[in-house]
From TrEMBL:
Oligomeric and partner information: Homodimer.
Gene: gpmA
Task performed by this protein: Catalyzes the interconversion of 2-phosphoglycerate and 3-phosphoglycerate.
Binding site residues for substrate: 9-16, 22-23, 61, 88-91, 99, 115-116, 159-160
EC primary class: isomerase
Keyword entries, A-Z: Gluconeogenesis, Glycolysis, Isomerase
A Pfam family per the record: His_Phos_1
The name this protein goes by in its record: 2,3-bisphosphoglycerate-dependent phosphoglycerate mutase
BP terms from Gene Ontology: gluconeogenesis; glycolytic process
């Protein structure tokens, strides 16, 4: 039985390109982001991978990425579940602000704390810990049971919602996961044994 889980951060978004805090705001992919998603699909196809079900967030950039990947795989009709539990971390009052402008206003250290501390939320937003507290129950009750039942699953989501998943899957601490940067449009392939232990992890960087 193949217990396959592929995680993929969306391709570059319009707001990634503009260097804006995004969170739950809903920009689409840039042309580069489209190309990254298509390349991700081609890499998966070259490995002979296909899926039985897909999960994505309620945000356009992740849904569009998934659609492009599935298009490359010839699986455009795949059963897909969209849920805001998989959304990016809510950036609160920072959403829409330029990251360099924020550093000029509040200082490098404060902005780094908001972006990369585990449990300190940005004003009005979610910390990574808060994000994990909504992502992980969804993962445990929806996604992992599918994987363990032998369904081959792909999840297209976001830098911080995927960090929360990776932290749990790989047994990392808060300190360890905040140091992990996820590239846009790079699938991470996991396989599990019958106990749910990881037997393979491969990053499909271009
Ligand atoms: O929401 C955002 O702005 C990005 O997708 C992730 O931001 P980060 O690199 O600050 O975690």
């Amino acid at each position: 039985m193949d217990r396959l889980l592929v995680l993929c951060r969306h391709g570059q978004s319009e707001w990634n390109k503009l260097n804006l805090f995004t969170g739950w705001k809903d920009p689409d992919l840039t042309d580069k982001g489209v190309a990254e998603a298509q390349a991700a699909g081609r890499r998966l196809k070259a490995l002979g991978l296909g899926f039985d079900k897909a999960y994505t967030s309620a945000l356009t950039r992740a849904q569009h990425t998934l659609k492009l990947i599935l298009g490359e795989l010839g699986q455009s009709d795949l059963e897909t579940v969209k849920d805001q539990a998989l959304n990016e971390r809510d950036y609160g009052d920072l959403a829409g602000l330029n990251k360099d402008d924020a550093r000029a206003k509040w200082g490098d250290e404060q902005v780094k704390i908001w972006r990369r501390s585990y449990d300190i939320p940005p004003p009005g937003g979610e910390s990574l810990k808060d994000t994990a507290q909504r992502v992980l129950p969804y993962f445990d009750t929806h996604i992992m049971p599918d994987v363990m039942a032998g369904k081959r699953i792909i999840v297209a989501a976001h830098g911080n919602s995927l960090r929360a998943l990776i932290m749990k899957l790989e047994g990392l601490t808060g300190e360890q996961i905040i140091a992990r940067e996820l590239a846009t449009g790079v699938p991470i392939v996991y396989r599990f044994d019958e106990t749910g232990a990881i037997v393979e992890r491969t990053d499909l960087a271009a």
